[in-house]
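Researcher: Here's the sequence for the chain we discussed earlier.
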Amino acid sequence: MTAHTGEDRARRLDELAGFVVELAAGRLDARLHPSHESDEIDAIVVGLNMLAEELQGLTHDLEGRVSERTRELADAHAALELLALSDPLTGLANRTLLAQRLRDAEASGVVPAVLVLDLDGFKAVNDSFGHAVGDALLVAVAERLRGVVRETDTVARLGGDEFAILVHDAGAAQALDIAERIRAVLAAPVVVQGRTCWVSASVGVRLGTRQGGSTDDFLRDADTAMYRAKARSRGGVSVFAPAMRREAQARTRLADELRTALITGELVVLYQPIMDLETDRVVAVEALARWRHPERGFLTPDMFLSVAEDTGLITALDLWVLETAAAQVARWRSSVLGDVPFTVHVNVSPVELRAPRFVEDIVDCTRRHGLAPRDVTVEITEHRLLGEDALTREALEELRAAGVGVAIDDFGTGSSSLGYARRAFVDEVKIDRSLVSDLDVDEQQMRITAAILVMAHAFDLVPIAEGVQTAGEADALRQLGCRYAQGYFWSPPVSATDLELRLRRQRA
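Model: Thanks. This is the structure I predict for it:
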């Protein structure tokens, strides 16, 4: 071996050592070109190159797998975060995200406003068309709500048919403008799965202040205002005031006391005569619930009925009145009435029309007390009818088929009952007292009432005038061809004992 050959071999060994150091340092893309000697050093070089290439491939594959796994973990985290902070049905924010954004808004120093809205008529859609249509309606409503707010605002679904909107940095005018826009976009019907659905929204508004407030306070107060709006009328708007919180607490106490009253016998039924204007005789009575409250005295239904409906006590209350009144009529039949035609009118909430056993409960009650179904007439207030949904229609048809009378109360004060009045499942209409007052001295009133009576007779309905206060009003009704009426002119609501005395005098 010559000196030159020895130097070349040493150089190649140094290059090989450097190559090994590079590979050991992780530079798997490094390569060493073999010489022309094709000796044992070149064999090592070729082997190391092949090893480096294989390791580089394995590393790239591993890095790809790690990258994919990292993306999968990030996607899973995002999905979990989305699930935790959004409503799965509508894709809106949920209560948790709404609360978080409300806290963020207050922390940034802006004055937010919160609107809580509840859909009026949603239960009727669910009951009539099924939950699939109900869910599709909620999705459609969510889309409409998104369209009335800014990108900085948050629309959330709190659950069921209740939604909330966080208006970022809003004054009273802006919050109320959004509330009105909500009412406007929900005024148009929603067509889902071939069904036309009508809903409106009762909206409660809680305005922010510079002093701020807890997230729970905002939502609770907006919810309280929403229930105030719903109590006033469907589709209303109400702005929270501190007095509402005290009223809400009072309503909660009243609900607890009403539950007790149903058990302890504080409730009583009074009876107001319904008169035949041709004979001036009592031919029916309306059963009216009263509450002998131990502290607040004698309470009329307008003071506790809405609480009963909000808390679900209305079912127990309506059934109790029906049972009490039916038992009383049965006693009157055996003691004074005999077989003389006589009907008791009982008021029921439209909500009850959708109860699974509503009709069966009424028929069973009449049988239990030995009455005929025709001895009972169910009254539903006109302005509280919830629309022509299938379940309401079916219940009214079943009542009529069973022989139970159906009357629309406060007729003439709204339009929803016209669809029912022209059907075959309504027997009577009770003309609202506002159309009877001053009937004998107000010509315009006379014309309006005359038109309503003509319409009632055209639909083959029996009209009954309510709230008659004077002999002049009674005479005017006779002249218009209205045969039946009730009011303080003849008698206020009285106890069963007092009414029985009147029936006995009438029979004598």
